[in-house]
C-alpha cells in the first residue's frame, strides 16, 4: 500500500471495501452493521492511501430506498447513521459476521466475532440487542422507537459466527443455520481464530411479541452436514414455508490461515463442500422436518461467502433462488466469483444466469431484493480488503434481464419475469406456467407433499418507494427552465429570499432595541464566530494515514436528532440446557435516554445508554479516521 507524504493535503475519502457486514431491510430502509471497512483517501498531489476501520463505536448505518444512486455515487454521503444502544461499546461493540434478523417492524443483532481488545468488556454470552422501529402487537400508549437489551434462552449463546441466516417476516421468524464456534462453545475473537469448529445447530428466533424474542436451539440431524457461510433461503410453500440451505464449505481457510495442517483440510473441503451445491438441505418449518434433495443442471462449484435472494413466478409455479459471488473457501487470496446462478424450485434445476469478470467479483457481501426485479449486492471485498470493489460498495443486479445496472432509481422497476435461462429448463413463460414442477426424482418422497401444499398467507410488501433525489447522484444538476426562458425555480427562490430578508430586518430591529450591553455582547460573539474561515476544510481532511479513489470534493451532510428508548427484557424459556454456557449476570439498562450526546459523553462499560445525533456517514466516519477509528454501517431505503 502507498504511503503518502505528510506534507500533502487530504482532499477526499471514500469506501473501498466492506467485508463481513450484517444487513437486513425494514420496510423501505436497509440497515448495515458491523464488518471490516477499508477507506481510500485521496490527496492533493494525486497520492492515494488505504486505511482500515478499527472503530468500536456502537453505530449502525442505513440507506433509504427512496434515494437514487449509481456506480459513481459517494456512499460516504448517502449513508446515514444512528447510535446503537446509546453508543456504549460494552453493550454494542462492532461485530464481524453474524446477522441481523428482522420482520417488518423490528430487528435483532445476533452472533459474530469481536476484535481482541482491552478497551471494553464484551457483552455476556446470553445478551442481544433489538431495535423496534414500528409498534406491533398489543397497543402501548407510551411506546417510542428504540433499542432493547434482551437475553437468550438458557441453551442459546451469541458465541457463534459465519452461519447462514434467513428471516421470514410474515412468520415473524428468523433462522441461523450452522456456522462456526469455539471447541468448548465458549468465547472467541476475530484475531485469534478460536471459532474453528462447525456448529451443528439451527437457532430459531420468534419475533411474534414485540421486543420479547423467543429463542430456540435445535440440533441438526446427522445427515445435514454442518458448514461455514452457506446461504439459507425461506421459500413460501407449505403451511409455514421451507428453508433451503445452499452451499457453504467445511474447513474454511480463513479460520486456519496459520495452521500447518492446511493441506489435509483443503483436501477434506474439496471432497465434501461441492456436495452442498449438488444436494441441498430443506427444512419444513411447520413440521420441523429436514429433507435432502439432489439437484441437476448447471451446478455451481463449491462456494462460501456468497449471497442469495428469492424471486417467485407470478403464479408461484416456480420459486427461483439467485446466488451471486463468493469464493471456494480454499485459497484466501484467490479471485472470488462474479457469476450468478439460479436454483429453480420445485424442479431443483440449476441454471447459470450470468458470467461475470475477474475484476468485478466479490465475496463476504450481502444481498437484498429491493424490488421484484432488483437485487442489491452490498459490501464484500475483492480478493482482499485493500483492493477496492469495482462498481462501488453497492451494485444493482436486474433479476429479469440478468445484467448489472449502472444505477438504482426507485421510480424505475418492473414486476418479476421468469428469465429465459429458467423457462428453457422448466417450461412455461415469463409469467409462470412451469410445466416441470418436480425434480427428476425425489430424494425423499415425503418432500413432494411439502411442495404440493400452498402457502396461503399474504406477504406484505412496501414498494414502490417514492423518489428522493440524491445530491451525490451522477445525474445532471443543470438548472431546468420554463417556456418563457425564466428559470422555473426562480420565482420560489426569490420569494423565499424576500421572506427571509423581511424576517432578518425584523430581527435586526428587535436586536437594536435591546440594551447597549446586550448589543455589545452579541457583537463580541459574532466576531468570535467569524474569525473561523467560512470554507475551512473539515478536520478529518488533515489527518495522516490511510482511505476512495482520486481527488474530489469532501462530502458533508447533516441529519436529524434522534431520541429513543433503551429497555431491558428478560426472555424466559423452557428449552433444556445443553453444554453451551448459561449466563445469568447481566447489566441493567435504564429506560431513559439523554439525547443528543457526543461520543465523548459515553463511557465504556457504563450502565447508562445514550442516543447519538443522527447524521450522514460522511459527517460521522470522517472525523474518526483522523484518530484511526470507524465502525459498521447500516443502509436504509426511504
From TrEMBL:
Residues 521-540, 564-587 are annotated as: Disordered. Keywords: Kelch repeat, Membrane, Repeat, Transmembrane, Transmembrane helix. The keyword Cytoplasm does not apply. InterPro entries: Gal_Oxase/kelch_b-propeller, Kelch-typ_b-propeller. The chain crosses the membrane at residues 489-512. SUPFAM superfamilies: Galactose oxidase, central domain (SSF50965). Residues 567-585 have a biased composition (Low complexity). The keyword Membrane applies. This is Galactose oxidase/kelch, beta-propeller. It comes from Penicillium digitatum.
Amino acid at each position: 500500500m502507498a504511503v503518502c507524504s505528510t506534507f500533502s493535503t487530504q482532499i477526499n475519502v471514500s469506501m473501498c471495501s466492506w467485508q463481513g457486514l450484517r444487513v437486513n431491510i425494514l420496510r423501505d430502509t436497509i440497515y448495515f452493521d458491523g464488518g471490516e471497512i477499508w477507506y481510500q483517501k485521496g490527496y492533493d498531489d494525486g497520492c492515494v492511501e488505504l486505511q482500515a476501520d478499527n472503530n468500536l463505536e456502537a453505530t449502525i448505518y442505513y440507506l433509504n430506498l427512496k434515494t437514487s444512486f449509481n456506480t459513481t455515487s459517494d456512499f460516504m454521503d448517502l449513508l446515514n447513521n444512528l447510535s446503537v444502544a446509546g453508543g456504549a461499546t460494552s453493550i454494542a461493540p462492532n461485530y464481524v459476521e453474524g446477522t441481523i434478523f428482522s420482520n417488518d417492524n423490528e430487528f435483532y443483532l445476533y452472533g459474530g466475532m469481536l476484535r481482541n481488545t482491552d478497551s471494553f468488556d464484551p457483552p455476556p454470552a446470553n445478551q442481544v440487542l433489538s431495535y423496534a422501529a414500528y409498534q406491533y402487537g398489543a397497543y402501548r400508549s407510551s411506546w417510542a422507537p428504540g433499542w432493547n437489551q434482551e437475553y437468550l434462552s438458557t441453551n442459546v449463546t451469541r458465541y457463534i459466527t459465519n452461519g447462514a441466516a434467513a428471516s421470514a417476516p410474515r412468520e415473524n421468524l428468523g433462522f441461523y443455520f450452522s456456522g462456526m464456534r469455539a471447541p468448548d462453545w465458549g468465547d472467541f475473537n476475530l484475531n485469534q481464530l478460536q471459532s474453528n469448529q462447525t456448529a451443528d445447530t439451527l437457532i430459531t428466533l420468534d419475533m411474534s411479541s414485540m421486543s420479547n424474542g423467543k429463542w430456540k436451539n435445535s440440533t441438526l440431524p446427522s445427515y445435514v452436514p454442518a458448514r461455514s457461510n452457506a446461504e439459507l433461503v425461506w421459500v413460501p410453500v407449505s403451511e409455514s414455508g421451507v428453508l433451503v440451505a445452499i452451499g457453504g464449505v467445511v474447513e474454511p481457510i480463513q479460520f486456519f490461515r496459520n495452521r500447518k495442517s492446511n493441506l489435509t483440510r483443503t483436501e477434506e473441503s474439496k471432497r465434501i463442500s461441492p456436495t452442498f451445491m449438488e444436494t441441498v438441505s430443506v427444512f419444513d418449518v411447520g413440521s420441523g422436518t429436514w429433507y435432502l434433495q439432489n439437484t441437476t443442471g448447471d451446478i455451481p462449484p463449491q462456494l462460501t461467502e456468497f449471497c442469495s435472494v428469492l424471486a417467485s413466478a407470478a403464479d408461484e409455479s416456480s420459486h427461483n433462488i439467485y446466488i451471486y459471488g463468493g469464493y471456494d473457501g480454499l485459497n484466501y487470496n484467490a479471485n472470488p466469483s462474479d457469476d450468478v446462478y439460479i436454483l429453480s424450485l420445485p424442479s431443483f434445476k440449476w441454471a447459470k444466469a450470468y458470467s461475470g469478470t475477474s475484476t468485478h467479483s466479490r465475496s463476504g457481501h450481502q444481498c437484498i431484493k429491493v424490488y421484484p426485479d432488483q437485487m442489491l449486492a452490498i459490501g464484500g471485498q475483492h480478493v482482499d480488503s485493500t483492493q477496492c470493489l469495482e462498481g462501488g460498495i453497492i451494485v444493482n443486479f436486474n433479476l429479469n434481464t440478468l445484467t448489472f445496472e449502472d444505477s438504482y432509481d426507485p421510480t424505475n422497476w418492473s414486476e418479476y419475469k421468469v428469465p429465459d435461462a429458467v423457462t428453457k429448463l422448466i417450461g412455461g413463460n415469463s409469467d409462470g406456467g412451469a410445466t416441470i414442477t418436480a425434480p427428476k426424482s425425489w430424494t425423499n418422497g415425503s418432500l413432494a407433499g411439502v411442495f404440493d401444499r400452498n402457502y396461503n398467507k399474504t406477504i406484505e410488501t412496501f414498494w414502490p418507494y417514492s423518489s428522493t433525489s440524491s445530491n451525490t447522484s451522477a445525474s445532471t444538476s443543470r438548472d431546468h427552465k420554463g417556456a418563457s426562458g425564466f428559470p422555473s425555480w426562480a420565482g420560489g427562490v426569490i420569494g423565499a429570499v424576500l421572506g427571509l430578508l423581511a424576517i432578518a430586518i425584523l430581527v435586526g430591529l428587535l436586536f437594536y432595541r435591546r440594551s447597549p450591553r446586550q448589543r455589545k455582547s452579541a457583537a463580541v460573539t459574532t466576531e468570535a464566530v467569524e474569525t473561523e474561515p467560512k470554507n475551512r476544510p473539515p478536520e478529518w481532511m488533515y489527518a495522516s494515514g490511510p482511505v476512495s479513489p482520486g481527488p474530489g470534493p469532501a462530502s458533508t451532510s447533516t441529519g436529524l436528532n434522534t431520541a429513543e428508548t433503551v429497555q431491558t427484557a428478560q426472555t424466559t424459556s423452557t428449552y433444556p440446557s445443553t453444554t453451551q454456557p448459561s449466563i445469568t449476570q447481566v447489566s441493567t439498562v435504564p429506560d431513559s435516554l439523554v439525547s443528543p450526546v457526543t461520543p465523548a459523553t459515553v463511557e465504556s462499560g457504563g450502565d447508562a445508554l445514550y442516543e447519538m445525533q443522527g447524521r450522514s456517514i460522511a459527517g460521522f466516519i470522517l472525523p474518526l479516521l483522523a484518530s484511526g477509528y470507524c465502525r459498521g454501517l447500516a443502509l436504509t431505503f426511504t
